[in-house]
Amino acid sequence: MKKLLLSIALVGSSFMYNAQVILAVTDIGSPIAGNYEFTWGDPASGWGTPDFLIPGTFIVGELVFVNDGTPGTNATYGNLLAEEGCNPSMANAYAGKIAVIRRNTCEFGKKAFEAQQAGAIGVIIVNREPGVIEIGAGADGANVTIPVGFVSDASGAALLAEMANNPVNIFFGNKTGLYNADCGITKGATLISKSTGVVSQLSQNASEFNFEIGSRVYNYGIDDQTGLTLNCTITNPSSAVVYDETVGPFSVVSGDSVDVIPAGAFSLPAFSLASYPAGRYTVTYTLNLGITDEYNADNSVSSDFVVNNSIFAMGTLDVVTGLPVANNGYRPSTNNNTFGECVVLRDANASRIGVAGIYFSAQGTTVDLTGEEMAINLYRWDDAFVDLNDAALAFNSLTSVAFGYYYYPSDLQGETVFGQFNTSVALLNNQRYLACVQTVNTGIYLGFDSKTNYVWNEAFYLQPVTPIENDGAYFASGFGADIVPALGLMVFNAAEAGLNEETSIEGLAYPNPAVDVVTVSVNAEGNAVLNITDLAGRTVLSQNVSLENGKTTVNIASLNSGSYLFNVTLEDGKTTQFSVVKK
Fold first, then answer.
1. Given this model, what pLDDT does residue 498 score?
2. Are 63 and 88 spatial neighbours (Cβ–Cβ below 8 Å)?
3. Which residue of 50, 282, 388, 435 has the smallest Cβ count within 10 Å?
4. 258 contact partners, CB below 8 Å, separation of at least 6
């Protein structure tokens, strides 16, 4: 039976961010006026909060900093415990205002409920670290009937600093119908690159790598609009514009939308280049009304893809390390035995590359990861189906062609690590592969990326993007195409590696991730040459080493933080390759 979607349980709660839902400081002339990235308590995930997906659902109010009177200081983070809002505040302490509360100590639902009991009309929780996460309802979330938002540490610091000197007022909710002239575009209705980690060996010209351009244009305003244009630009690693196309003018009536899609009434040319220099490319869609848009913060959407020779990925890749980035942990809402997340790879020229392992991350609210075993597998996916609409879509013919285990050396909560296959393997042309990381601990949440959105890609190309496994059953669309497994498949040039049984040997490095010194372990003795390259294929270190009892130590203190490919070549010509993450 074909299985597509599965319900989820999260470290937080589900991520809902549509362009018409905003959190903005509205004070004219304020140095912090404008929009803030946020997540919010979604009633579909256990909160009793209002549903911001309903037009006209919002709050407007002044911010107030919580102080529940709890004595002491948080020993870990240094803030006053009273600012965490985990205990009852005085009656009506926040009456008619939006309470700002620090993260830490107790559940998000508990904080929000205590603020609600003290008269707050809404809650903004401030993260203790960069970025935003999804906020879980916890035991009290169902009793919270006021809106609850979550912002990053930097956003929270800006709000709190301004609150110390001046009143700060915000708009929080759905802005549909608030303005006369207001149109926008969203990540969830925009075509992006087919992957974020684009393998250079498989993308040598326009026919080998290309993708369609398109977006849905919404009219959130009261007035019909007749002079809309949509532009798309793509810049290369040198910031040069390599694609610049515009369609329009076209019209969208109030409350409706128009699709700019391939072969549609309105369309933009597909993107392709004759060659693809390595590095980061940025795709930017920009909407223009032809008149002043009274709310223009949702008139632009951007996404990146990175051409490189070491990582195939579907989720966000870090700008410094080049590794997959998870912004939250997920697992199925019902899970009794095993849980795995996967990435799909299929290419007409796949025999050019081999695979060595998988980058991934995990976390657990009550689990110390030290010693935890994670299974990694590369399957040949032999079920014959055309697309997601094909009744033959199944996971009945999965043959493991590479496998291994990763054991956490310490409690690396949320950190990207590398699991190496026991033996590297070359791929076959036009063969569909499924690369998965799996845990048997039901307390572990695997890392996912909810900032990369393939909803429109999946609908257009009809190919699986985000598969997961739960208790032996596979789901082709996982938790949804906007919740992407934060996995990276470590690849290399198969021809250069001379990948075959006669020339390859087993090898690994530890600790991994490493700080200054790493031990290289190879099933061999004697002299060898170690060549270390970065994700762009540049040699960053090359030296002769001597293997005693199959081991040698290498000082990597001079390397920048990131991921590197170690290639060890013995005197008899045999080689081994593996990846090392430098902290």
1. 61
2. no
3. 282
4. 216, 217, 228, 250, 251, 252, 266
Tally of helices (H runs) and strands (E runs) in the chain: 4, 40
Question: In degrees rounded to 5, what are phi and psi of residue 142?
Answer: -65, -25
Q: Is the peptide bond before 43 cis (omega within 30 degrees of 0)?
A: no
Q: Name the region of 137 (left: φ>0; alpha: ψ -120 to 50; beta: rest).
A: alpha
pTM equals 0.77
Sheet with 169-174, strands from edge to edge, namely 34-35, 21-25, 169-174, 58-65, 98-102, 122-126, 148-151, 39-40
Tell me the mean pLDDT in the region 67-90: 94
CB 562 within 8 A of CB 534: yes
**Alpha carbons 64 and 386: distance in angstroms, whole number:** 55
Contact 581, 565 (CB under 8 A): no
Answer positive or negative: Cα dihedral of 221, 224, 228, 230: positive
For residue 472, what are its two tokens?
Answer: 């032996």
Q: What is the dihedral of CA 523, 529, 534, 540, to 10 degrees?
A: 150
Closest CA to 358 of 412, 273, 421: 421
Are 266 and 258 spatial neighbours (Cβ–Cβ below 8 Å)? yes
| E-assigned strand segments in 333-431 | 339-345, 353-360, 362-363, 373-381, 398-407, 417-426
Domains, in order of start, for the chain:
21-174 (3.50.30.30), 183-308 (2.60.40.10), 312-492 (2.60.120), 503-582 (2.60.40.3080)
Contact assessment for residue 257 and residue 188, using Cβ atoms and an 8 Å cutoff: no
Per DSSP, the three-state class of 272 is: strand
Rounded to whole angstroms, the Cα distance separating 55 from 444 reads 37
